[in-house]
């Protein structure tokens, strides 16, 4: 799938190692997943740069370091089993998650983006992903509880509906804030949520509602 891009993908993974991503499985998945499939033709030459790129509809494909780090954090805190992804977007983060975790449930509020993401995942033979067109703020109650939740857009405040869908021992990673955003980890211990501030980040906002 990578063909002429393999050298660029390997260089990206070397950079991710330098920046502190240590999980071997995640590095291997990042090296073998064709990021150029998830961007428009005119941006393919930038596919393996460590930067976010526009995907239309005011949305972006996240910086590879952030994709790898958010996935790694969930693994490091012991998350196994089913994952809820809020914000399918291009489907790139979804593809990484699907190769690391058992089952991925992914919600996207913009139907056209969801359709494109589904097509890309099928081309990659990733069939352990279930998608839904809907409001990410509400999560996916009928599939809860989840071992992990990953939110790929910044929420002004902590979405209580999402926290409620974590299983005991589960974890959610989410950017919180508006002008100043902080990547934040919540770990559920019985009925308590332990909060850890991880790093300053910049994401598009988590918007309520859905677009057909």
TrEMBL record:
Biological source species: Pseudoalteromonas peptidolytica F12-50-A1
The keyword Nucleotide-binding is annotated on this UniProt entry: no
Family: Belongs to the methyltransferase superfamily. L-isoaspartyl/D-aspartyl protein methyltransferase family.
PANTHER family: PROTEIN-L-ISOASPARTATE O-METHYLTRANSFERASE, PROTEIN-L-ISOASPARTATE(D-ASPARTATE) O-METHYLTRANSFERASE
GO cellular component, one term: cytoplasm
Keywords: Cytoplasm, Methyltransferase, S-adenosyl-L-methionine, Transferase
Name recorded for this polypeptide: Protein-L-isoaspartate O-methyltransferase
EC number: 2.1.1.77
Reactions accelerated catalytically: [protein]-L-isoaspartate + S-adenosyl-L-methionine = [protein]-L-isoaspartate alpha-methyl ester + S-adenosyl-L-homocysteine
Gene3D superfamilies noted in UniProt: Vaccinia Virus protein VP39
Stated role: Catalyzes the methyl esterification of L-isoaspartyl residues in peptides and proteins that result from spontaneous decomposition of normal L-aspartyl and L-asparaginyl residues. It plays a role in the repair and/or degradation of damaged proteins.
Active-site residue numbers: 62
One Pfam match: PCMT
Primary gene name: pcm
GO BP terms in the entry: methylation; protein repair
One Gene Ontology MF term: protein-L-isoaspartate (D-aspartate) O-methyltransferase activity
Subcellular location: Cytoplasm
């Amino acid at each position: 799938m990578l063909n002429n891009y393999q050298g660029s993908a390997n260089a990206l993974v070397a950079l991710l190692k330098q920046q502190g991503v240590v999980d071997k499985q995640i590095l291997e998945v990042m090296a073998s997943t064709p990021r150029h499939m998830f961007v428009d033709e005119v941006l393919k030459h930038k596919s393996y740069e460590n930067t976010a790129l526009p995907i239309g509809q005011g949305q972006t494909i996240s910086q590879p370091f952030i994709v790898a780090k958010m996935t790694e954090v969930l693994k490091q805190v012991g998350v196994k089993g089913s994952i809820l992804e809020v914000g399918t977007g291009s489907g790139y983060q979804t593809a990484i998650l699907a190769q690391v975790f058992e089952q991925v449930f992914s919600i996207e509020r913009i139907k056209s983006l969801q359709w494109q993401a589904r097509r890309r995942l099928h081309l990659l033979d990733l069939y352990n992903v279930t998608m839904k067109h809907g409001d990410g703020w509400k999560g996916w109650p009928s599939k809860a509880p989840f071992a992990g939740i990953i939110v790929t857009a910044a929420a002004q405040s902590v979405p209580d509906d999402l926290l409620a869908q974590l299983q005991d021992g589960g974890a959610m990673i989410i950017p919180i804030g508006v002008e100043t955003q902080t990547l934040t980890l919540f770990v559920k211990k019985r009925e308590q949520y332990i909060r850890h501030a991880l790093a300053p980040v910049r994401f598009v906002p988590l918007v309520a509602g859905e677009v057909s």
